[in-house]
Design goal:
70 residues, 3-stranded parallel sheet
Length: 70
Amino acid sequence: MQKRKNGETVCIIGLGYVGLPLACLCAEKGYQTFGLDKDIEKIKKINKKITPFADNKLQKLLKKVNITNN
């Protein structure tokens, strides 16, 4: 994981097929990343570093990054 970019923060609303990969990429680039979604089961999976849908590349990336979920 890269160092944080000057304390810059990103918030992604909706952690579906577009939002979760975007959040992972932002976190990988060093941004403090927050992810919001209304699906509590999806959030639980993401917090356990498990993608809520099948995507092997995203699964590997999710394990390496830190996304704060609410």
